[in-house]
Amino acid sequence: MTATKGLEGIVAAKSSISSIIDGVLTYQGINIDELAEKASFEEVIYLLWNGKLPTQSELDKLISQLGEYAAVPNEVIDGLRLYPQGANSMASLRTLVSSLALYDEEANDMSKEANYRKAIKLQAQLPTVVAAFARLREGKEPIAPKKGVGVAHNFLYMLTGEEPAQVAVEAMDKALVLHADHELNASTFAARVTVATLSDIYSGVTSAIGALKGPLHGGANEAVMVMLDEIGSLANVEPYIQNKLDNKVKIMGFGHRVYKHGDPRAKHLMQMSRQLGELKGDMKLYEMSVKIEELVTGQKGLKPNVDFYSASCYTMLGIPRDLFTPIFAISRVSGWTAHILEQFEDNRLIRPRAEYVGPADQHYVPVSERG
Ligand code: ACO
User: How many angstroms separate the CA atoms of 137 and 255, rounded?
Assistant: First the structure.
């Protein structure tokens, strides 16, 4: 038995949800480039869960169900009020999602219908709890979700208490489409491993949030913004990045386990970053990002991944940087739940082996005789 570090190249499941073949990402066979330009996030959610794009009435029904389930129990919000000041946003989200299960009577109902309903609830409620977290820590009361609007619109509304500008809704919607699913990434794998024990969907999504939090995965978008803030100016990009490269420090938002010739999602976010900069009349973050890309790709051959340009986009939308990874979760919960439903369809416990590299032929030594 020989281990493959990081399971690189290991095919661990069959899935018909999304594919990465020759660097091309598809959701249910539809190229992400096409979906980024044409699809709404709600159409993508339906596509991931049902394997086909919705008809108008199916789409209307999904939007209305998302509106119906978006409010969260008061007890969950009351619990959130007790979290310590300065609580980490992803740790809070992990706890919030876990606590949602406590107030869902069908949390442990493993029927297909209940699981599909719980997928809708999770998709509907994640934006509500993230917005509530963001408001309460600023001493503001949470805002009740709206009915009949899309996830992007509702989230921005609940965050600010104001009707969001159309351009902001469109940018957020596209970002949600681009982050919705990504084959067997670390958080999705964590979700599938959890539910393959026949644990419930809330446990699966809680595991996934824990995995997404790390800076090698979803946490990279926040880390990119920390870097941009540290750099501070276009003039400082070159010395800062050169110093990191010379000292072999990883540049967040670059590289990918699967894509070696570039992440197909990055170009859409780059374009969005440019457009938002033009609209704001402030190109600084975009120009700094482009310069970083030139240096890192030029010297290391590493290309930006989905997290790199999303940092400048979200900042230009006025979103605090520690909400970037929770926003990733608001989108990816569509993919996590799609994978969980798929796992339940043809389940088998996921239990790989380990290559033992510890000592052999050891014996128990009484504590009094240990040196
Ligand atoms: N900056 C500098 N060097 C890098 C970077 C980077 N961002 N990424 C990889 N490298 C280098 C490594 O140092 C290593 O070099 P070496 O062979 O000389 O030691 C080589 O490239 C291979 O890197 P690994 O970390 O082994 O590649 P792996 O496939 O395990 O990791 C990962 C992929 C985690 C994405 C990695 O590229 C990374 O850490 N990137 C920065 C974090 C990041 O942006 N994560 C988000 C990924 S996208 C997502 O999850 C949504």
Answer: 34
